[in-house]
Amino acid sequence: MPYDYIRKILEARVYDVAVETPIHSMPFLSARCQNDILIKREDLQPIFSFKIRGAYNKIALLSEADKKKGIITASAGNHAQGVALSAKKLGIDALIVMPTTTPDIKVRSVKEKGATVILHGDVFAEALAYSMELVQAHGYTYIHPYDDPDTIAGQGTIGVEILRQHTGELDAVFIPVGGGGLAAGISIYIKYLRPDIRVIGVEYEESACLKEALKNGERTVLDHVGLFADGVAVAQIGKETFTQCREFIDGVVTVSSDEICAAIKDIFDDTRSVCEPAGALAVAGLKKYIENNQVSGQTLLAINSGANINFDRLRYVAERAELGEKREAILSVTIPEQPGSFRAFCNALGKRSVTEFNYRYHSKASAHIFVGVQVHPDLHTSDALVDQLQQQGYVVDDLTDNEMAKQHVRHMVGGRSAAIVNERVFCFTFPERPGALLNFLNKLGDRFNITLFHYRNHGAAYGRAMVGLVGVGVDKMGDQHVEGFLQEIGYPYQEETDNSVYRDFLA
Q: What is the rounded CA–CA span in Å between residue 263 and residue 272?
């Protein structure tokens, strides 16, 4: 056992700036997953990340000579904030090299703490290489974000807190892995005192450098690193961290961006806090571990490692969370091109809520609609929905796992149609509730041919649909009759036929 590490962890100087974070239960997720799920709230640190622990411990232990040289580091954000705050606390000049892809909220936070920031490279490896060039040129003292015994020991204090705060049964701990400092520090301490507890590393599938190193038996540089979970966007596991993780980590789970988005939602539902993608990594891995191993009745703990997320990133998270949770199916369905087909299809869906409905008239033969439908990951799955529709004669293509469909095509359905004449476009607003779309179609009736339809459930109190209409009541009736009929429907509407966006892209 690495007794020198245990001593380093117990003597680590972290609480001058860090706080002892609580362990919270996750009752909603626990009930759904049939396990007792706990979360360690490192997002509650002064910099909203665990990184303050390792950074401060390393800097506080420097010699006076090394401090006077000034310190430098490379970081995708959270370690940079830890170094900046630690340097400010200790009165040391700090220079931080950050990838140009670092979220703006992290860059601003580092500058606010008094450090000098240099943006260089698209990924961490490029920022790291440049920072080492500056060390050689100017003699700065380098503060490594993970591959240093003092940094590892600082992160290991989380393991001390876990075993002190939770003295009961604990079956497994899930730790996010980037460069490996957090995983190494926590696993060393937990395995020393409680070797019965399984320690599982969790990696984003597009930056799984520990999994690759374990597979190859040596540290390996990844050809590509995904930036969605920027806090763990590391191409190669650290040398020292790999040595420790290989000995003390029991396994590695990898997760997708959709699964991370679902975990962000899970954490919000149980704690009302919003974490960053890397912060939700461990919860995503915990859920996948339960699913893959059919685990029930156990006590499982995940580290919420940080909450430094750009606000605009939440748009993507909200869009993908239901897919990651397997609570939304995305389908391409072929229906007859005739009045009443939309209503018949909605009736075929039963009581399921429609989350999205996109259609554009193309030919008289058949209609292709792009539809999102709420499903249940256990009871009413997307596979069951596809089977149900196919049994009723519909041609269905399940696009739930089609990245092109989710990322691009869902936003592009529509366009122009040369076969349409005398089309008029209206935007309707109706109360958002289960069955709302079907009720709207029922009120619209068969008096119109629907040539364009766009609807998306945004979680608001009211649903909004854009509808193109031709046929009886539009091109053969006077405006007064059309207005009178639409008013009978009872939903607020506005005609958009003269809208420049419609003319430029759809007419």
A: 13
